[in-house]
Amino acid sequence: MPALDRQDSVYILDLGEGENRFHPDWIAAVNDALDEVEKAEGPRALVTAATGKFFSNGLDLEWLFAHSDEYQEYVVSVHELFARFLSLPVITVAALQGHTFAAGAMLSLANDFRVMRADRGFWCLPEVDISIPFTPGMSALIQARLAPQTAHEAMVTGRRYGGQDAAAAGIVDRAVAEDAVRTAAVETAQAQSGKAGDTLGTIKARMYAPVLAVLRDTSNPLG
Questions:
Q1: Which of 11, 143, 151, 220 has the highest count of CB atoms within 10 angstroms of its CB?
Q2: What's the chain's average pLDDT?
Q3: What is the per-residue pLDDT across 198-208, written as a single tens digit (0 to 9) for each?
Q4: Residue 178 has what DSSP assignment?
Q5: Residue 118 contacts by C-beta under 8 Å, 6 or more apart in sequence?
Q6: What digits encode the pLDDT tens for the residues 118-141?
Q7: How far apart are CA 215 and CA 140, in angstroms?
């Protein structure tokens, strides 16, 4: 399960060492961590990281198929998690040490910055290949955070981007060696920790107001 630690002014949220799929209990644990970061005072920033082969493999499809009657409520909870990251009143940095797929890739986009391993691992939106269309909220998030041509290619082809390709496409900000991913993310977060607070939260809320409105539409989240 996700665990929260702190190094000086940087909180580090480790999503886990498995596939880190969005099980309801996992989502609840991440939200609890965000509550702690949000309620804290003073300089602070957040690094979201993981351990092992995956950063996150996205939605928990096994749980979802077993609880199909809860599909809409589940999607609402995923959308709200994206919205929280996107509007969090601290600088957020995703440290992508492994495969970052589907909703996991979208979660990385909801962070302010991304650092990815250069030599192994892929960032990918495979929805077109697994016949799961993006929800309106997901589409809005992706298109708000990526350049139009990159968003188009990623969404309609399901291309798998390695670290160097992801950096060249503007999907991630930096591609570094495996042992430098978390360190580089923490350094980026530390440098911006003084920005935390209501002003930053207001800037993000206004910058992404249309996206947040779609993500928080609980009446018709599936389109």
A1: 11
A2: 98
A3: 999 999 999 99
A4: G
A5: 162, 163, 164, 167, 175, 176, 177, 178
A6: 999 999 999 999 999 999 999 999
A7: 8
Indicate the burial class of 195 (C-beta count within 10 angstroms; 0-12, 13-18, 19 or more).
middle
What angle separates helix 71-87 from helix 24-39, to the nearest 10 degrees? 30
* Residue 181 and residue 117 in contact, taking contact as beta carbons nearer than 8 Å: yes
Pair 63, 27: CB distance under 8 Å: no
Tokens for 15?
Answer: 């999503």
Q: Is 49 helix (H, G, I), strand (E, B) or coil?
A: strand
Instruction: For residue 52, give the nearest of 93, 113, 85, 95 by alpha carbon.
Output: 95
CA distances from 200 to 77, 172, 203, 216 (A): 24, 21, 5, 20
Separation between Cα atoms, residue 201 and residue 99, nearest integer Å:
29
Q: Quick one: average pLDDT of 24-31? A: 98
Report the candidate in 180, 175, 198, 185 with the shortest Cα–Cα distance to residue 10.
185
Stretch 31-35: mean pLDDT, rounded?
A: 98
* Distance from C-alpha of 11 to C-alpha of 217, rounded to nearest angstrom: 29
